[in-house]
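Work Package 4 report. The design task specified in the project plan requires that, given a folded chain encoded as structure tokens, an amino acid be chosen for each position. We show below one input record used in the internal validation round.
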């Protein structure tokens, strides 16, 4: 991160929706035999609602990421996604989530290449000297394919859970069209894209090479991405988990286009794009690893070069079943998972207090709580889930919250004490484990 004084923003505290209070009450009883875990869940589950949500007068919802006073399209979705299953029962929660969907639609219309936005046209920026087409609404303009996927994930999940179609108006359909058109453009990035990004701060992960165009790529059918979900620049600009996410989201968009808008022509356009991206993943995204067999690469350029790693952010290789691209027992995913959780992954670390995946975004040997939570969500056995829960319990540095990264040998050495996405993903994992019965008192030791 650049060193400068972050602007402040006032987030008035809102009352917790009744259904969320009810979940917290039930959890207190269900987890009473695990007081540390109970405290963590009590703090983390409502953290987004208690500290990052601002209800706007126009009916939208602004959600900051935590210790940075801006709203990331990606982060804001994952900060609230664990509340969606309860939205049907609570009008206040529906107001919050539907308001966020409306806000995302506004932002996509303002600039579909931006990853993070301001509450207003305040002209606040992460870096005031970025060489790109900035807007006073935009906090940062790093194009990440997942930034356009996550809002559609939230909108689809909300619709499926509540049946509420009020937010799916002409503006929402227009946002879907903008996403489709941009994906089409970025299939041919060098020839057709207006997007350029450079940041002259001496950090290679913060800027794109080749005068902001990025490294050369071959046509594959996949969608070009400038940056990863960590906001770090791609080495090779076809990010495989990001394109997998696009395939899933295009399926969501087809269903919404068909069932809400009755637009069969748009359905067929979306279906064709989905097929092209998916074929590109199959042809260019699989690497024959000498130890693990066929695995999904993290990135490729379509010329036969691969980036073999996994990053703690979502979408990543570990999160492929979470995104909905395949099931957790898929053979290539299982090979990929074994690779990602091995020392062959340059960002997998083992230390005296934990073992798991980190990121080039944070210092060497820093493991991310989000990676541990995602490993737990996608784990195939109760034993692995319980091991990860114990690891998460033991590495909060006695703060009662999750963080970004922490040193594998010293959990008290960590980044970001207020990182709502990490708290939300942890809560999602713990709630899932609780509902699956693996946290029952008689099932723990």
């Amino acid at each position: 991160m650049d060193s400068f004084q972050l602007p402040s923003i006032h987030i008035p505290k809102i009352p917790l929706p009744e259904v969320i209070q009810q979940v917290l009450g039930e959890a207190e009883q269900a987890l009473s035999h695990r007081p540390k875990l109970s405290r963590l869940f009590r703090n983390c589950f409502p953290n987004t609602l208690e500290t990052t949500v601002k209800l706007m007068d126009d009916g939208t919802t602004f959600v900051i990421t935590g210790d940075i006073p801006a709203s990331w399209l990606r982060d804001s979705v994952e900060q609230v996604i664990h509340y969606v299953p309860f939205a049907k029962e609570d009008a206040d929660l529906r107001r919050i989530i539907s308001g966020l969907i409306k806000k995302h639609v506004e932002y996509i219309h303002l600039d579909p290449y931006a990853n993070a936005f301001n509450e207003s046209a305040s002209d606040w920026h992460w870096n005031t000297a970025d060489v790109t087409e900035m807007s006073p609404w935009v906090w940062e303009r790093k194009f990440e394919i997942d930034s356009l996927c996550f809002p559609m994930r939230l909108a689809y999940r909300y619709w499926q859970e509540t049946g509420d179609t009020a937010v799916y108006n002409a503006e929402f359909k227009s946002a879907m069209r903008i996403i489709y058109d941009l994906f089409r453009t970025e299939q041919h990035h060098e020839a057709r894209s207006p997007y350029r990004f450079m940041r002259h701060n001496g950090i290679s992960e913060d800027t794109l090479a080749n005068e902001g165009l990025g490294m050369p790529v071959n046509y594959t059918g996949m969608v070009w991405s400038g940056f990863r979900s960590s906001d770090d620049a791609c080495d090779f600009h076809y990010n495989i988990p990001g394109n997998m996410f696009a395939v899933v989201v295009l399926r969501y968009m087809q269903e919404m286009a068909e069932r809400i808008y009755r637009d069969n022509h748009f359905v067929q356009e979306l279906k064709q794009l989905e097929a092209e991206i998916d074929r590109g993943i199959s042809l260019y995204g699989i690497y024959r690893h000498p130890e693990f067999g066929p695995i999904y690469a993290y990135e490729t350029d379509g010329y036969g070069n691969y980036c073999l790693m996994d990053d703690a952010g979502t979408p990543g290789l570990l999160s492929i079943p979470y995104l909905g691209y395949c099931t957790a027992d898929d053979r290539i995913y299982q090979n990929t998972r074994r690779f990602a959780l091995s020392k062959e992954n340059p960002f997998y670390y083992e230390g005296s207090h934990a073992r798991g995946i980190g990121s080039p975004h944070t210092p060497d040997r820093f493991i991310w709580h989000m990676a541990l939570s995602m490993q737990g969500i996608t784990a195939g056995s109760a034993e692995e889930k319980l091991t990860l829960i114990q690891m998460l319990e033991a590495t909060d540095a006695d703060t009662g919250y999750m963080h970004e990264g922490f040193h594998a040998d010293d959990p008290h050495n960590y980044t970001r004490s207020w990182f709502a996405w990490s708290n939300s993903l942890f809560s999602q994992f713990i709630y899932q484990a609780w509902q699956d019965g693996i946290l029952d008192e008689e099932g723990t030791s």
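Residues 264-284 form the longest helix (21 residues). Validation will be extended to a larger panel in the next phase.
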